[in-house]
Structures
1.
Amino acid sequence: MNIIKCKNCGQELEITEAIEHQIIEAALVSEREKHRKELDEIQKKADATARTEMETVVKRLQQDAAGEKERNKKLQEQLLELTNELRKARQEKDDAKLEMQKQLVAEESKIREETRKKSDEEHRLKDAEKDKKLQDAIRVNEELRRKLEQGSQQTQGEVLELELEELLGKEFPEDKVTEIKKGERGADVNQTVIDKLGRECGSILWESKNAQWSDGWLKKLREDQRAAKAQLSVLVVANPPDSVETYTYLEGVWVTTRQLVVPLAFALRFDLIHLHQEKLSNVGKNEKMEVLYQYLRSAEFRHRIEAVVEAFNNLQLDIEKEKRWFTVKWARQEKELRKIIDNTHGIYGELQAVTGRELQQIKTLELPSGEDQEEEK
């Protein structure tokens, strides 16, 4: 058998089959070439048609775009025109509104000005009326204040007089402390000093003042002292002069404050009793009386009085401090003692309750019975 290999496909064939195969191959090649040419023709025609259609579509799109651009341009022009008209209308409206507001403001300003003028006039009249009432009230208030001050000073002066009389009477119950009645010429209080034997040793004239210091008080009190024939005179002031810090002897008158009345009274009273005893022991000895009189007017006597008053004042302050300290101490101790007693009673009662009153009784912790009361009596 004659076999050959196909040069195209490499398949081994017989010669007859190879020839047949070659013929078929040639035919297939011819058909492929023809088919390819037809495809090329169809492709060329399709490309031409597509190009033509594409150009047509592009031209149409370009025309549509140009028309759309033209329409957009017209619309933009119309929109711009409409916007201008709207802006113009809004501007006219705003101008009209502004003009109306100006008119309203002008009318309002006019009305406000008229109202202000009317209100100012009314206020001016009311202010004038108020000023007049205020001036009248101030005048009345000033008169009342002056009367009240006069009454207050008078009342305070009377209170100071009563306090002075009560203080002297309390501190010196053996003396005769008498009030000089209102309307009578003289000072406020007259203190007749009486010693332990009941003998009158002299008198001290007391005057109290609750106003601003006046030098005329000294002259008046000296005249009252001469009229009352008192050995000493004391002026008690609420507002002493700047030179007086505690007490002093001015122009024949002792001047002091309310706080130092008692110490000064003790010192003056002591000297009056001492001078009276000296006088009794030296009756008929005028020269000694003159010495005593000079002694009373001497600086030594004044210094001794001041020393006695200062010592008495310091002693009184110490006594007051000790009294307050012991009062606090006794109150604290009494409170603690009360706690001890209460707790003791509480323990005793609780034990009686627990033991059923079998606990031996403690009489000091029990309520007293009738027999116990009799025994206590």
Note: Residues 176 and 201 are 11 Å apart (CA to CA).
2.
Amino acid sequence: MHALLVLIAPVLLSAEPQAPEFREQFFTLCDAVVPILDDAGRRVPFYQDSYAVRALAVAYDMSGKQQYLDACRRWSARMVEHQAQMTPQGAYYMNYGRKPGEATGDWYVGDSSSIALAVLATALRCPDAREKARLLDSVTGYARLVMDNYVKPSGGITDGLWPQFDGEWWCSTGIFGSLAFVLYDETGDPAYLKVGLGAVDWLNRQRFENARHIDYKEAAPSVLMYVFEAYSAGMPHLRRDPTRWAASQVELRRAMEWMAANQPGRNAASHWKYEHQWGSKLGGLPFHLYVWSRFMPEGAPIAADADKDLTHMGTALAGDRSNLFQLCAFAMMSYAERLSPGSLYRTDRPKAKSADRR
């Protein structure tokens, strides 16, 4: 991690940067994470890598730099190789818990869905048809596993093989719900859309502050990051049903109230720390705000709030800290959405043209 910070420091200055510098900051982070992702011996959970991979795929879209796509392809290939040896069939290895070749041990839908989103992002950019098909088959195989076993009639989704709790859970519901929306947008299979909408309906009823089994008070930034990815990925579909959209906006606005009070870049009194396991997910919250700014009537002010917090994050990443990879990976998502709106959820399937904003 020290190497990452050494690479970042010359570009990210001690004074808070302004929005026009976001592009330079983003590509500096991208260059720094490529060798980190290539280190197959790292003992970091793969879900952390997955957010950097998704952002790196957008960096490839923006720049055409082959090194970015190649890093995504190498990482995704490792995920598929591990998956081929996993029980149950279709599961991803998380770099902890149940290992390839084992038939016992914990295995989680939440973390594995993060991996699936990164493999899917890589697949959609692969120029080789066979490689693309292999990666897409990997993701759809994983989705079948979850849909056949862990999606409940309520719309909520359990976290797989987790003996401490086997009910519908906020994290697995939010992240797999987002994967379902992206798979629907790519394949047109209505089964995915049904799961995505059901996940949001369950989350609307649940209300994010009621999160348990990693409680909201303990892990609020993580709860918001993961729960609301289902909303961000499904935004165009949520708007098509006025009742569902109204219920979803209630949750979105309550989330924005929390962010205004707790994002360090907007409230210096916030007690959340970037180095913390839960606080590191603050890096991804501007990503959500940027997405929502394209769909909600307040548009520009929402994006301006995100700019302010992302600017503060850039300053934090310039410091000589030892535990900032998670912040870096999640912040890369925010930079990617700021610089290339909508690219994190891009698909190859043609869509009817429509304006994002209401």
Note: The first helix runs from residue 2 to 8.
3.
Amino acid sequence: MKKLFRMTAALGVSALVATAGVAAAADISGAGATFPYPIYAKWAEAYKTKTGVGLNYQSIGSGGGIKQIQADTVTFGASDKPLEPKDLAASNLIQWPMIIGGVVPVVNIPGLKPGDLLLDGPTLARIYLGEINKWNDAAIKKLNPKLNLPTTDIAPVQRSDGSGTNFLFTYYLSTVSPTFKSKVGADTAVQWPTGIGAKGNEGVANMTAQTEGAIGYVEYAYAKQNKMTYVRMINHDGKTVAPEAAAFQAAAASADWSKADGFYLILTDQPGATSWPITGASFILMHPQAKDAASSTEALKFFDWAYKSGVQLAQDLDYVPIPEKVYKLVESKWTGIQAGGKPLWPAK
């Protein structure tokens, strides 16, 4: 994962998903969420090897991805904040879930190992409201009576760009904290009362790693691959859970995508003894009337391959693949993607 961070930093908003084997003039173009970037990178590398088709993905955050697909400058957009049906209609877009993962608080507290620190939602909200500003605060010590917590100032790190990870994190905090909901709210970009801004999951991970006393939030693959000190959480049912694929799967298990209009579904704070509380899906956005039939068809073929053949790669990074019954439902909607009045799917 450190390789991915360096790649993103070097290439900026034009970060190529995959290794140097993908040509700059890629056959498929996409932009948006940093949350799924690690798995899109792995999928693209494998798909390039198998088919010769490249993928150029700009890891710029969900807000940027939505804007680019609305402007029709990329084949697809990616967002961790699903668009509501009315917004899909207004922008003439369709969306579907591509992968499921977890947003994980990470800390930089010398002497603590991954999973040592336990937090609950209300306490995490108070930290990001600036109400708790020392690591040895009584509220944190109550949850961690056996930890020797320092007097170090807490440095909250948050996303500075329009971000679906931001949306999932603030949606969760707004659910568990009425004060956070009223003062900050849930959105891809919010006005934070305190803390340090950083761009992308990559930026938040790097800023947290560089700042003693910091706390940030990233997609779990970023925490796992960089051996960051992740936090355990108390979930909706009051149970202590650690971030892992099984906990993300548990949170997603009750999701009924067949009843979700436009696949609009949010998976945070789900019930269940083993559910991770900040779980979310990452979505693909495309125009039903394709401007470029060839690239749109190639994109659909790539997504189909990822659903069916990218399962192990996703699991290796602790993402949760979309279940077969769900992706079959998704692919039944692809017949609505057309060019010149002709459906692009099933691909010829």
Note: The chain has two domains: 2-101+261-265+280-343, 103-254.
